[in-house]
């Protein structure tokens, strides 16, 4: 038994493993875990340390343990053992109460942290490794991807790094990245990787187009939630659907195979980690997850089962565009018209009957319409037909 690092099995966690092997070579064993498997490993580590009376160091990154293991780890440290837990999830902030806990949501004001960036800083400050351009660049790509800053910064390389991980085994990715970080002055993708990443992007686009037709809408508490079943491309899918349907507070992606739900949002005012925590999960404000518990199954599978998929907005209209007047319809064949009424207020007609509320902007009127009636922008001919019928009724 030697020193160990237990870390998450996503890009941020795997990159902590890569840094550990860069720093300690073969003097550390690295284990990649899901959220649910970590506690079993920690329990086994502590039991073995107790039986053999060893005091090996245990690093835990990008994950946190349950309350029982938290107390046992603290006892292990009190008896001379060495533990270092490094995380960036706000649900883990209470570990800062221990001298072996290091949890930061932000590195500095306005700059969100990742486990990789915190672990890198820790290793440098402890003089375990020396910073290099390649390490700096790699760690920043991971940080931007994990905190979703890559999208705001249009840093496609960060997204491509994550794509590359999921196109191969963790072991293959780990070996390639280690070699590159040790041998190169700067971090870049090679020509072959660029080509396969181009192919992967097209494959992802086709997958998203297919899943867009399966999205259903419902309310979970006060949140208007889009629900879709998918086994792949959760981050890309959640991001794309969030942009396509900005009236939704968040997107819930269900993987029935591993019984997990991933939550994604594009809105700064929505914290999906709070939604995930209601079902025993957690994560970040914009990306979180949980297991499909009995209660989660009831809310996200059973109740929405009979709901029809959302009506997509027509994409190639000449006349029926989102401007001062637009026509919508839903899967129940209800028709709606948003237009600028009196006093520069936007109003909504439902099947030629004016609804009572008025809105100061087209966007707010459309938001209400989509959240209340699951309607989508119709094709040009539906607008023309609706207006002709309105004219005939008012003659």
Automatic annotation (TrEMBL):
GO terms for molecular function: nucleic acid binding. It holds the Pfam family NrnB_C. It comes from Metabacillus litoralis. This is Oligoribonuclease. Residues 326-394 form the Oligoribonuclease NrnB C-terminal domain. Residues 259-302 form the DHHA1 domain.
């Amino acid at each position: 038994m030697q020193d160990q690092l237990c870390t998450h099995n996503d890009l941020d966690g795997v990159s902590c493993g890569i840094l550990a092997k860069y720093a300690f070579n073969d003097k550390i064993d690295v284990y990649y875990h899901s959220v649910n498997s970590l506690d079993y490993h920690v329990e086994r580590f502590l039991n073995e340390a107790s039986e053999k009376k060893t005091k090996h160091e245990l690093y835990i990154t990008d994950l946190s343990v349950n309350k029982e293991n938290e107390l046992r780890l603290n006892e292990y440290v009190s008896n001379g053992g060495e533990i270092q837990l490094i995380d960036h999830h706000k649900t883990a902030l209470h570990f800062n109460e221990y001298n072996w806990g290091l949890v930061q949501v932000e590195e500095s004001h306005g700059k969100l942290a990742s486990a990789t960036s915190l672990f890198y800083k820790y290793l440098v400050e402890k003089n375990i490794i020396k910073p290099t351009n390649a390490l700096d660049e790699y760690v920043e790509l991971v940080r931007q991807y994990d905190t979703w800053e890559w999208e705001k910064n249009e840093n496609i390389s960060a997204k491509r790094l994550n794509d590359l991980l999921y196109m191969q085994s963790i072991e293959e990715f780990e070996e390639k990245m280690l070699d590159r970080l040790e041998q190169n002055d700067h971090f870049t993708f090679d020509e072959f990787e660029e080509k396969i990443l181009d192919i992967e992007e097209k494959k992802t686009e086709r997958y998203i187009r297919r899943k867009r037709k399966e999205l259903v809408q419902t309310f979970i508490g006060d949140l208007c939630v889009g629900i879709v079943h998918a086994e792949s491309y959760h981050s890309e899918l959640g991001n794309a659907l969030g942009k396509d349907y900005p009236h939704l507070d968040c997107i819930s992606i269900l993987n029935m195979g591993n019984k997990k739900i991933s939550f994604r949002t594009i809105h700064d005012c929505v914290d999906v980690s709070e939604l995930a925590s209601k079902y025993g999960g957690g994560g970040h404000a914009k990306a979180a997850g949980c297991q499909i518990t009995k209660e989660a199954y009831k809310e996200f599978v059973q109740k929405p089962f009979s709901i029809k998929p959302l009506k997509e907005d027509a994409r190639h209209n000449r006349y029926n565009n989102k401007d001062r007047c637009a026509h919508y319809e839903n899967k129940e064949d209800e028709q709606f018209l948003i237009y600028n009424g009196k006093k520069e207020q936007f109003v909504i007609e439902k099947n030629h009957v004016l609804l009572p509320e008025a809105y100061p902007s087209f966007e707010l009127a459309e938001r209400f319409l989509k959240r209340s009636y699951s309607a989508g922008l119709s094709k040009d001919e539906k607008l023309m037909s609706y207006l002709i019928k309105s004219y005939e009724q008012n003659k």
